[in-house]
Write a structure and sequence with these properties.
The complex is a heterotrimer of chains A (736), B (304) and C (391). By secondary structure, chain A is α/β, with parallel strands linked by helices. Chain A has 24 helices and 29 strands. Chain B has a single domain, classed as Rossmann fold, CATH 3.40.50. Classes of the chains: A alpha/beta (736), B alpha/beta (304), C alpha/beta (391).
Chain lengths: 736, 304, 391
């Protein structure tokens, strides 16, 4: 008589396997038995099935304690129980892709065969993905291992009414099973099972309250793990802000924490919350659901409403000079001061802020907001030297006086346009100069028709300022279309609301003075869009013979600026955020627009911060991780479980009516009244402790303690519900 | 936001407050286990303890082999038909002694819709002071998957090999007809609603009935990981209406169906021979059922 | 103590009620009840009783009546119910549970013929067929014995050495509906006899036992062995509580096995229930006439007190067993158990079965005289003899 014991799990078809094996023998005239050890079978629970066959009639009705062979349906079941009572030289057939030698050491003295029945079953679509039914494949392997007639399994399957791909699975396994027959047949450690016979206390003795002893983690074929990803907003933020982090704090109504989160990377949340073009919003995964989260207004909310104290983290001896007090210089000063360095900001003008003060009109960035955020930087103990312009020789002196020098003088060279001889210094001027004078309230343009050339924020700021300074009309001339305008979309929208006209695809050719009065005529040419250029924008192409005149009193040029590097020694190589490669012994950094010409406040802040971190690394050796996250780790909308989110419209901040605001310098935009917009943040790829995984774990073996999640793998059955229900792809499964 | 489950943030899992213990032998992805965990949370939030009465069903197998138990509270196994009777006795003595703990029947659909119907009806009619929770997996799961009167039309079971012809019994209508103080359906896809209604029940007296749509990967022949998604689809497509009934009379719809097509729900479960099913009839029936409930809720609203 | 004229049902209802009331200082009393002829008066009595701390739940079936009592008992209350005939059959599943859960529930059972056909008269088959479950069964002869046995049943059932439910059994109408003088003890005496119930395995929030979950063969067998050991202790413990009953109430509630003139008897009649009264009259007459005959009244059926019967009948060679029941394909249930008892200790003794009053027929002195004539004349035992009808 041959006796076979099958070790399987509920749902794998172990009892059916016993039946198939028995049938193969029954059809060849043997007396057979096939049976299971029945209890409360549960999908995944270990269970046993048995098969015995003999040429003589079988009268034994016992379980099989000392089998001739064992079959293991799942490699996770491989353990000492497998060989309990197994006779020496017996076969151990394991469903596993590995080579039998992998198990030889564990089971000396037994013959071992392996077959990857799980893959075979999956390929043949038997069972579900997580619980493939491997019995027909294993039957094929058994036939080969035990030397049954090759056709016997197909005969049995047909006899039992199996259909379809079960036959293919059996054949495939018959072919693929790996058999190792050359092991030492004398080393078997045969164990004889002992059935316990002692009594167990009954219910009147209070029995029945003990904890379960089954380690259900052994049932698992897969296990959950966690990984956090970089949200696209964090990835693209030029300032390096933890956008997701501050939004989630706001979503929890923790405004102070939101501000504190922002202040780790930027000293200017209230400023950026007003003037940032917010690339985060363009990259927001929520766009694939409805609208981007209104990050800009939320940053403003956190900056304006939050309370957070910033203090130096240490006291350090090194003295550092920062030349220029624009956003890059002040951001660098802020971070260095936080690290404890002795920072001196040197500014050529009479007040701090650089372009934030001179270039951005108060109706977009109220002065008290700017002053408050600068005040927070100065409060860290930063020294200031005003009205101190730094030329090349001054820089050299600074390198002697300070341990490091950061140059953040921005873009001082203004791009111009040769429009011929028309006009004078007053009627044709740089937009940036106009803004500076406008902001200092030393200019008016009453009843003038004003033309602004350009499509950036400076152009719009100048145009809207002109309107507020009495202009009769303001029009913007831009050689591309609205879509290519670098200005913030909202600002374009607001400008148009206020009555500013835009002439798109229009190129100024020249300006001619008019006879008889002080007005000007600007000759323009129509453009059309051609092929994309290096920036990805479609290149405007002039349309021949399309010239036309526009009359005006004043032309403001806002065509952009470029860096003036004359402060550095000849031959210096300027790299953003890194030591200027030059002839000086003291580290000198060029930062901000001077180095990178990114042209946004956020980029300047990021540049200043990176320089500060870099200097800190030079002086203190402290590496500060994660400046720029790897693009591989950025989570895209396709990886989120979007169906778990409901569509909800964005909360847009209120603006004052155009008719009213166009007449004064008070702030146009009112921001948002409450932070509920932050609840729209999907927290892409970052756990926000929504607790769905914890709530839905059927076993209750996923525990969260604060921010820490603990999977109890001893008991986790690997069902995968936690991963399936994690909206943000933080929890995922790996096969065992 | 809908994804955030605003539960008590106390770490219930793995604690003694959790009704089921690690090492229980329920299948992976078991909806009943999820239901028990949510019940644990509701009890913890209400600061209440409970004793369970469980008839023959997967719920009693959860306890596992004597002398161990997968439950952390006292459990009285009842005969299949009689859990409401056993619970009546336990609850009566609890009330005689002015004790605060809840007595909760935790029963499958077989013990509720079928064999236990008379006992359930009688206990409801007497307005016995306990909570009855039916975790409805629409099948005799413990015996390997036979039809019950909760099995939906179309579903293949071992006793309806070509798909069930009859529709699922409307147990909620039956329970409402008893004019019990509270009856509600619960879907794990909407855990806040689930917990809110359990909380409502935990703060009432008299007979309280809950019906949980309880996914069963083994019986439904579905992916264990998709358990919650399946009941979510059942709610969004109107196959499982989520509502509550006060005094058998006043109705409130808690989660409105989104109008999703039920076909996705059926497609993800191998128990449904989808090509052989009259999906149009199913859609019409679901739509009519929801329309009926919506009208009841409009005409007999819950007073605020 | 007052002597009153009451029915057997009244006596049972009274005993159940005052026993329940006696637990008012502990967790009280609760039960499920359901009517069936001829026991209905018992549950009516219970339903009307003004318990200080009790709840009587009128349910929809016998199955649930026992279900409620199981729940109540498991929660620590003193629990009981009553039923009869097909009601017991319908209750059977939960009768098993009460026994295997080791709950000290007392069931007043009125013997009525199992149907169909529809027959409401006395036959012990409805309780005897429950013989294989962990229940103590006590059969009564008088209304007083019903009352006394019911009180004793609680004391016995709740004894920590026993923890088994008890059935107190009486014949339909002959006891249940017959008015007889009966002493109804005051509550104060009952309180003295029945201490507050303290169930060791009562549901306890601080001990999360699962009662009745999946249990493997070895563990289940262990529990069966515990039942076996408790059953073995019953006769001795019964005697203790019988003695204390006598002390408090001044009355003997009856032995597990009572005898008449068995010490020197060569033949005895073995009887139970109300047939014992009639048989005693006849046996007394035959003894007076010089015949060496005695009588045994079996009060306890489970556990089967075979040893006591043998001890009381040292010289008996002929046993005539009167069964008011019929186990199909076998004969009388009492006869069958007695035959098994005699096998070995009394090999060679003759045991003849007489099926008397089966399905409610009246068992008259004349019929018993015929039985004695047959028994004394017999040289060897034959098939069970049906009395009262020509076979």
């Amino acid at each position: 008589m041959i006796e076979i014991r099958i070790h399987g799990r509920g749902g794998q078809g172990g009892v059916t396997l016993a039946k198939i094996i028995a049938t193969t023998r029954y059809l060849h005239g043997f007396s057979v038995q096939a049976f299971g050890l029945y209890a409360a079978e549960r999908s995944g629970a270990p269970l046993q099935a048995f098969c015995r066959f003999d040429a003589q009639p079988i009268t034994n009705r016992n379980l099989i304690y000392e089998p001739d062979h064992v079959i293991v349906l799942d490699a996770t079941l491989v353990g000492p129980a497998i060989t309990s009572g197994l006779k020496p030289n017996g076969w151990i057939l394991i469903n596993d892709p590995r080579f039998p030698y992998e198990f030889a050491e564990q089971f000396p003295g037994y013959r071992i065969a392996t077959v990857d029945a799980t893959s075979i079953a999956r390929r043949n679509e038997l069972g579900t993905r997580s619980v493939p039914i491997v019995n027909t494949a294993l039957a094929g392997a058994v036939a080969r291992v035990l030397g049954f007639e090759p056709e016997s399994v197909h005969e049995a399957l047909e006899h039992l009414g199996f259909r379809g791909k079960n036959f293919d699975a059996a054949s495939e396994a018959y072919e693929r099973v790996i058999i190792v027959d050359d092991v030492d047949r004398h080393g078997a450690r045969v164990t004889h099972p002992v059935t316990p016979t002692q009594r167990v206390p009954g219910i009147v003795d209070g029995g029945g309250a003990e904890r379960p002893v089954i380690r259900t983690g052994q049932w698992a074929t897969q296990q959950p793990h966690r990984k956090e990803w970089t949200p696209p907003c964090n990835h693209v933020c030029p300032a390096g802000n933890d956008v997701q982090g501050f939004l989630q704090a706001l979503a929890r109504k923790e405004t102070d924490l939101a501000l504190e989160t922002l202040l780790r990377t930027t000293p200017f949340p209230s400023v950026c919350g007003r003037v940032c073009p917010a690339p985060c919003m363009e990259s927001c995964n929520r766009l694939s659901l409805d609208e981007a989260v209104n990050v800009r207004d939320l940053e403003r909310y956190a900056g304006d409403r939050g309370r957070a104290e910033v203090k130096p983290l240490a006291t350090r001896e090194q003295r550092i000079a920062v030349v220029g007090s624009g956003p890059a210089g002040l951001a660098a000063a802020y971070h260095l001061a936080r690290f404890g360095y002795r920072v001196t900001v040197i500014e050529g003008g009479s007040s701090l802020g650089g372009l934030l003060r001179t270039g951005i009109p108060p109706y977009r960035l109220p002065r008290e907001v700017l002053d408050r955020e600068i005040g927070r930087i100065l409060h860290l103990g930063v020294d200031v030297r005003l009205d101190t312009r730094i030329e090349r020789r001054d820089l050299y002196r600074l390198t002697l006086e300070f341990d490091a020098v950061l140059v953040a003088t921005g873009l001082q060279e203004l791009r111009s346009l040769d429009l011929g001889g028309g006009g004078n210094g007053e009627s044709i001027m740089q937009g940036i100069d106009f803004l500076d004078r406008a902001n200092r309230e030393v200019i008016r343009v009453d009843d003038e028709d004003v033309i602004v050339v350009g499509g950036g924020n400076t152009a719009f700021d100048a145009a809207r300022s002109a309107l507020r300074l009495g202009a009769r009309s303001v029009r913007i001339v831009y050689r591309r279309t609205r879509e290519e305008m670098p200005a913030i979309a909202e600002e374009i929208e607001e400008a148009i609301e206020e009555g500013i006209a835009c002439d798109y695809l229009t190129l100024p050719i020249r300006i001619e003075p008019r006879n008889g009065d002080e007005r000007l005529t600007m000759i323009c040419r129509r453009m059309q869009l051609g092929e994309p250029d290096d920036s990805g924008r479609r290149r405007p192409v002039e349309v021949e013979g399309s010239d036309f005149p526009i009359e005006c009193d004043r032309v403001l040029l806002a065509l952009g600026q470029s860096a003036d590097l004359s402060v550095f020694p000849e031959g210096s190589e300027v790299r953003d955020g890194a030591d200027v490669l030059g002839l000086l012994e003291t580290p000198v950094y060029a930062i901000g627009d001077l180095a990178s010409n990114d042209g946004t406040v956020a980029a300047a802040i990021g540049s200043g911060r990176r320089a500060a971190l870099s200097i800190h690394y030079v002086f203190a050796g402290e590496e500060l991780p994660g400046l720029v996250p790897a693009a591989d780790d950025v989570i895209r909308a396709g990886s989120l479980k979007m169906h778990l989110f409901e569509s909800a419209p964005s909360h847009h901040g209120m603006s004052r009516p155009a008719e009213e605001r166009r007449l004064d310098y008070r702030e146009v935009h009112a921001g948002i009244a409450d932070p509920s917009e932050a609840e729209r943040c999907l927290s892409c790829g970052v756990c926000n402790e929504c607790d769905r995984c914890v709530t839905y774990c059927p076993e209750g073996v996923l525990k969260r303690i604060g921010r820490e999640f603990i999977f109890d793998y001893e008991y986790c059955k690997g069902c995968g519900v936690c991963a399936a229900e994690c909206p943000r792809n933080v929890v995922f499964m790996t096969r065992l | 936001m809908t994804t955030s489950i605003e539960l008590e943030k106390s770490p219930i899992a793995c604690s003694e407050e959790c009704l089921i213990r690690p090492g229980n032998t329920n299948c992976g992805g078991c909806g009943m286990s999820v239901g028990l965990n949510l019940l644990s949370r509701a009890l913890a939030k209400a600061g209440q303890r409970c004793e369970l009465v469980i008839p023959a069903c997967c719920g009693i197998v959860t306890a596992g082999g004597y002398p161990t138990t997968g439950y952390s509270v006292p459990v009285l196994a009842s005969t299949f038909a009689a859990s409401p009777a056993f619970a009546s006795g336990v609850a009566a003595v609890r009330d005689l002694n002015n004790e605060p703990q809840q007595v909760i029947c935790w029963a499958g659909d077989g013990g509720t819709y079928d064999i236990g119907m008379a006992t359930l009806s009688a206990a409801a009619e007497r307005n016995e002071n306990f909570i009855y929770i039916c975790y409805d997996n629409e099948i005799y799961g413990n015996t390997g998957g036979q039809r019950s009167s909760a099995t939906p039309v179309g579903a293949k079971t071992t006793t309806t090999p070509s798909g069930k012809i009859e529709s699922k019994k409307d147990i909620m209508a039956i329970m409402a007809a008893h004019r019990i103080p509270y009856a509600a359906t619960l879907s794990a896809a909407h855990p806040e609603d689930f917990l809110r209604k359990l909380d409502t029940g935990l703060h009432m007296n008299g007979f309280r009935f809950f019906l949980i749509h309880s996914p069963c990967p083994t019986g439904w022949k579905s992916e264990p990981a998709e358990s919650i998604e399946l009941v979510r689809l059942a709610v969004s497509s109107g196959l499982f209406p989520v509502y509550e009934v006060f005094d058998g009379w006043r109705y409130r719809i808690n989660i409105k169906p989104t109008g999703a097509d039920p076909v996705e729900y059926y497609r993800r479960q191998n128990r449904f021979p989808i090509d052989a099913m009259d999906l149009d009839a199913i859609r019409k029936h679901a739509s009519a059922s929801n329309e009926r409930l919506a009208r009841l809720a409009a005409v007999f609203p819950v007073a605020n | 103590m007052t002597l009153e004229l009451v029915t057997g049902n009244h006596a049972a209802g009274y005993a159940l009620s005052v026993a329940g009331e006696a637990n008012r200082g502990a967790r009280g009393a609760a039960c499920g009840i359901y009517p069936i002829t001829p026991q209905t008066e018992i549950v009516e009595f219970v339903a009307k009783y003004p318990f200080s701390k009790g709840r009587v739940i009128a349910v929809e079936s016998e199955h649930s009546a026992m279900g409620v009592s199981i729940g109540a008992s498991m929660a620590g209350a003193r629990a009981f119910t009553a039923s009869s005939s097909n009601g017991l059959a319908y209750m059977t599943e939960n009768i098993m549970v009460a026994g295997f859960y080791r709950l000290p529930i007392v069931l007043a059972a009125v013997n009525r013929t199992l149907g169909p056909p529809w027959n409401i008269w006395a036959d012990q088959g409805d309780t005897l067929y429950l013989r294989d479950f962990p229940w103590i069964q006590l059969y009564c002869e008088t209304n007083q014995e019903v009352l006394d046995s019911t009180l004793l049943a609680f004391r016995l059932a709740e004894d920590r050495r026993i923890l088994l439910p008890v059935m107190v059994v009486m014949d339909a109408f002959i006891l249940s509906h017959t008015q007889m003088e009966t002493e109804l003890p005051e509550q104060e005496l009952v309180d003295r006899y029945l201490p507050p119930l303290s169930l060791p395995h009562e549901l306890n929030l601080n001990r999360p036992t699962t009662v009745g979950g999946l249990t493997w063969p070895r563990e289940t067998m262990s529990q069966r062995i515990e039942v076996d050991e408790a059953m073995e202790r019953v006769p001795a413990v019964y005697e203790e509580h019988r003695a204390s009953f006598k002390q408090i109430f001044g009355r003997d509630p009856g032995a597990a096995v009572s005898t008449f003139e068995t010490e020197d008897a060569e033949s005895v009649l073995v009887t139970s229930g109300t047939i014992a009264s009639t048989a005693l009259e006849v046996v007394r007459g035959r003894r007076a006439a010089g015949e060496k005959i005695g009588m045994v009244k079996m009060k306890m059926f489970r556990p089967f007190p075979g040893d006591r019967l043998l001890d009381a009948c040292p010289h008996v060679r002929k046993f005539g067993v009167l069964d008011r029941d019929y186990a199909a394909g076998l004969g009388g249930v009492w006869w069958h158990d007695l035959r098994a008892t005699l096998q070995g200790p009394r090999d060679g003794a003759m045991v003849q079965n007489y099926l008397t009053g089966v399905c409610g027929g009246d068992v008259t002195p004349a019929m018993i005289n015929e039985v004695i004539d047959d028994l004394l004349a017999r040289r060897s035992a034959g098939k069970p003899v049906w009395k009262g009808i020509d076979k």
